[in-house]
Amino acid sequence: MDKNRRTAYYTLMDVETRKSYSNIALNHNIKRIRPDSSAFVRELVYGVLENKIYLDYIIGSFLKEPIKKIKTSDITVLRLGVYQIKFLDSVPDYAAVNESVKMAKRFCRGREKFINGVLRSFIRSGKEIELPDRAKNEIDYLSVKYSYEPWIIGLWLEEFDSVDFVEELLEAGNATPDLVVRVNSLKTSRDDLKTRITAKGYESTAGLLSKQALYLKGSDILDGKLYANGMFSVQDESSMLAVDTLDPQPGEMIMDVCAAPGGKSLAIAEKMNNKGQIIARDIYRRKLSIIDKEAERLGINIIQTGTWDATRVDSSMIDKADRVLVDAPCSGLGVVRRKPEIKYKKQAADIEELPRKQLLILSVSSQYVKPGGVLVYSTCTVSRDENQRVINDFLRRNTNFKKEEERQLLSNVDKTDGFYICKMRKEELFNND
Asked: What is the spatial distance between Cα 43 and Cα 221, in angstroms, rounded to a whole number?
């Protein structure tokens, strides 16, 4: 068993058993095991995660017992094997089977023959499995084909008029996202960074939505001196647009009430030319340390981090902030192309409770905005309940705020993460004397 597949196995097991985020688990295991090809490891991990329901559908057709009864270790090895056989032309079928059997001998002792049998049966079938009948159940068909939990498909079918559009959205969520970076305007310009990046052999293209965005292609970009010296940060263009919409100005006092891991707080500081004050808060102290570390790398010293529960009012901050950003906790349905494990969330009570929590955080945070100041609400999801309906409820209860801008970014339309942004302004207080 080679180190690449072993690394992929450990990463997938971390996601399945520890509920780790795929990107964090990947980076941890790549650093720990040092595989020969981190690119191949990422292909295996994201390939399995993006197609998990489809892979399980294939595997289930060759089982005599329900797939739910199969141990996590067994199903993980089978998913890796079937994914290579079905999707990777660069891996011969025999190699996929042999490496899977080797993996089974280490991680699934006594199940080697079973795993070998399932994989060989799939190869003998011609590697084609008939999908559920679309005419009988559209949601089941789309769920298996694109590997999303049925409730997500049902949600989007209700919100969008066209089935074709929803299918495009599902497909876009399975696409590999580009590497997008935010130019640190404190140290360089986009044109200058583009020139430097190109000189090192990487491809770069200017973003379309934000003047600070560059799309890059190449390996090990984050290992170079340009990144180490704080010339840029990784951030999707949709997140940059949220900060552009906030439009922070030098010298202002800004609050970011749900700040961790800090990409938007740091972008705000850069737009302010590192002049003014930013209060970046989150409920978890360990996450705030990431902001402190990144601020040092980028040459930023105006961010004050601190722990705070955003659902509670801080009376000392009422009417103090020129602008407040509420990047609210959400279901994350807009970032499935970066974190495919999100596609398999069950529609549990916590997801149904999210709009109430979001509205509470927004209502609390609005009290920090000065008269005439700006309040921006954003999420990385595609859900009217968490986006437009939260804003409508807030504006109905807070008539002193007026909506100025609103935008829902979609991966299949804007080629960004799915992201919602709404800008509101607090009315000025007028003295009648």
From this structure: 18
Q: How far apart are CA 298 and CA 303, in angstroms?
A: 12
Q: 10 Å Cβ neighbour count for 199?
A: 8
Active-site residue (options: 258, 330, 380, 422): 380
179-234: CATH topology is Alpha-Beta Plaits (3.30.70)
* String of DSSP letters for 366-379: HTTEEEEEEEEEEE
Q: Given this model, what pLDDT does residue 433 score?
A: 47
pLDDT of residue 411: 97
Could you please state the CATH topology (level 3) that the domain comprising 237-426 is classified under.
Answer: Rossmann fold (3.40.50)
Domain definitions of the chain by residue range: 3-124, 138-173, 179-234, 237-426
The 3-state DSSP class for residue 223 equals: helix
Q: Is 78 helix (H, G, I), strand (E, B) or coil?
A: helix
Q: In the numeric block, which tokens belong to residue 251?
A: 């010298």
Burial letters for 55-64: b for 16+ Cβ neighbours within 10 Å, e otherwise?
A: bbbbbbebee
The DSSP result for 124-180, as a single string, is HTTS--PPP-TTT-HHHHHHHHHT--HHHHHHHHHHSS-HHHHHHHHHHHTSPPPEE
> Which positions ≥6 away from 432 have C-beta within 8 Å?
none
| Tokens representing residue 380 in the block | 């990385």
Which one-letter DSSP state was computed for residue 54? H
Active-site residue 380, yes or no? yes
| Angstrom distance (rounded) from CA 282 to CA 86 | 43
DSSP 3-state assignment of 11? Answer: helix
Residue 363 has a pLDDT of: 98
CA distance to 197, 229, 297, per residue, from 225 (Å): 11, 6, 11
- Show the low-confidence residues of the chain (pLDDT under 50): 433
**Which pLDDT value is given to residue 69?**
93
What pLDDT shows up at residue 352? Answer: 80
Cα–Cα distance measured from residue 16 to residue 10, given in angstroms and rounded to the nearest whole number: 10
Domain 3-124 is in which class?
mainly alpha
Which amino acid is present at 347?
Answer: Q
Q: Which of 106, 10, 8, 12 is nearest to 56 (CA)?
A: 12
Q: Are 316 and 366 in contact (CB under 8 A)?
A: no
What integer pLDDT is reported at residue 220 of this predicted model? Answer: 84
CA dist., res. 98 & res. 91, Å (int): 11
